[in-house]
Design brief:
118 residues; alpha+beta; four-stranded antiparallel β-sheet
Amino acid sequence: MREDQVLCACSAYERKYYLNPRFHSLPEQIQNELQILAVTMTEDVGGVFTMEFDEDGCLYMSAVAREDDLAYDEIGSHLKIKQYQSRYAELMEELEEYYRTFFLSRDGVDIRREECGE
């Protein structure tokens, strides 16, 4: 059983950005774009933002907050994620293809799956 793989995360509480070292082979421009995307998200709505690949290679985004965080904008986080899914659709598809190619391939055979849904 495989677990989901965190691509990147950002915390408004610790004011830190994290890129999983497994993905340091991504082009620097993509790494920078992911950082800007994640940091902007947490600055706008607060909480902790993550981008993760599920076991099928689909990339999903989520935002959560501490229970006592009254400043967290839950509705705004959902709207922002929807906006990112639309605005960065091509980037997300390319990241999914990258992940499937380099992390889900076995013995040189590409593992295919249904298109990722929302």
